[in-house]
Design goal:
With 336 residues, the protein is of the alpha+beta class. The protein folds into three domains: 117 residues, Beta-Lactamase (2-Layer Sandwich), CATH 3.30.450.20; 106 residues, Beta-Lactamase, CATH 3.30.450; 40 residues, no CATH class. 35% of the residues lie in helices and 25% in strands. The chain has 13 helices and twelve strands. It has a five-stranded antiparallel β-sheet with strand order 2-1-5-4-3. The protein has a five-stranded antiparallel β-sheet with strand order 7-6-10-9-8, with helices on both faces. Strands 11-12 form a two-stranded antiparallel sheet. A hairpin with a 4-residue loop joins strand 1 and strand 2. The radius of gyration is 43 Å and the shape is elongated. The N and C termini lie far apart (115 Å). The N terminus is likely disordered.
């Protein structure tokens, strides 16, 4: 990054301009020191991080910022030997405590990168401030609070069961969907709530599921509401018994009663359509019909066309007379 023109005076090269732009805009602290540990370049982020004024750090020893690094001779072991093949392979990163101008310590993550320049070997130091234990603890508390609010306000029922199948935790949604309190469910298996027609299937499926840590599965069944009605549930389970932080089976239950009713309505409609179609008889082939009386021959018998068609379809006949037949059979009536 600072391999060319970093220490040159006079004309500004393109490489130096790009390097300066990166130095100024970088979100992390950056400083460059020579083989003697003397700081030759520093950006504003580093000055702000260590509470130094403009250009106060230039020409000072990097030891004022990283006393631990020099005190433990870590620089000599990992970075100062810029000619070693191990150091040339890439950056060396580690955590240490930095020292601000006011004497306060900073937890830092530092990466050292060797630079080979016309002015001699340099070391570029990338500096990031690490969260303090208090900040990390607060961040953890904030994450736990967000997760708690998500679970407690979810429309689904979230449950954690132990290895014996008993409920260790269930979310407040259990009251809205099933009518039971959290206290009523904790410590129970809840199998007594499963519909009798489905209980053995559910128990067998869950018993096998418990034997496979890491497994994921879905099952649908009916469970009894506290008011006595039946609620259709779709349950998705995650076997995390071998997870050190969970050591249980996480179950997400969703009320699908409305969906089941809609599916049942569709099934009934399909059944009715199929029944209607099965009652429709199609006439095919050649029908022998009398050219005079229009009776249809059926085996040895002759039947009126109306009766023949009526037996083979869902139709009824209403008799009338067309104008031509009226003139033929009732000429007097037609003339009047």
């Amino acid at each position: 990054m600072f391999q060319k023109g970093i220490m040159s005076q006079g004309r500004t090269t393109l490489s130096e301009a790009v390097s300066r732009a990166v130095l100024v805009s970088a979100p992390a602290g950056i400083l460059v020191f020579d083989s003697a540990g003397r700081i030759v370049l520093v950006n504003a982020q580093t000055e702000e991080l260590f509470a130094y004024g403009l250009d106060e750090l230039v020409s000072q020893s990097a030891e004022v910022l990283f006393p631990e690094l020099f005190r433990e001779d870590r620089l000599q072991r990992t970075a100062a030997s810029t000619g070693s093949s191990e150091w040339q392979r890439g950056p060396v990163s580690f955590e240490l405590r930095g020292l601000r101008k006011d004497g306060k310590e900073l937890p830092l993550e530092v990466s050292l990168v060797p630079l080979d320049t016309p002015d001699g070997p340099l070391v570029c130091c990338m500096i990031r401030k690490m969260a303090s234990p208090q900040q990390a603890e607060q961040a953890l508390r904030d994450t736990e609070e967000r997760f708690r609010l998500m679970v407690e306000n979810s429309h689904d029922i979230m449950t954690v069961r132990d290895a014996d199948g008993k409920v260790r935790y269930t979310s407040p949604s259990i009251s809205r969907i099933m009518g039971y309190t959290q206290e009523q469910m904790v410590g129970s298996t809840g199998f007594e709530l499963v519909h009798p027609d489905e209980r053995s299937t559910v128990e067998s499926a869950l018993k096998e599921f418990w034997k496979n840590p890491g497994a994921r599965g879905t099952i649908q069944f009916r469970a009894r509401h506290a008011a006595g009605s039946w609620v259709s549930l779709e349950v998705t389970a995650y076997n995390l018994l071998d997870h050190p932080a969970i050591q249980g089976v996480v179950i997400n239950g969703r009320d699908i009663s409305e969906r089941r009713q809609q599916e049942a309505g569709k099934d009934q409609m399909i059944a009715e359509l199929q029944q209607t179609i099965s009652n429709v008889k199609t006439l095919t082939g050649v029908l022998p019909i009398c050219a005079s009386c229009k009776k249809i021959q059926e085996g040895e018998n002759w039947r009126q066309i109306e009766a023949y068609v009526r037996d083979r379809s869902q139709v009824e006949f209403s008799h009338t007379m067309c104008p031509e037949c009226s003139s033929l059979w009732y000429p007097d009536l037609q003339s009047n």
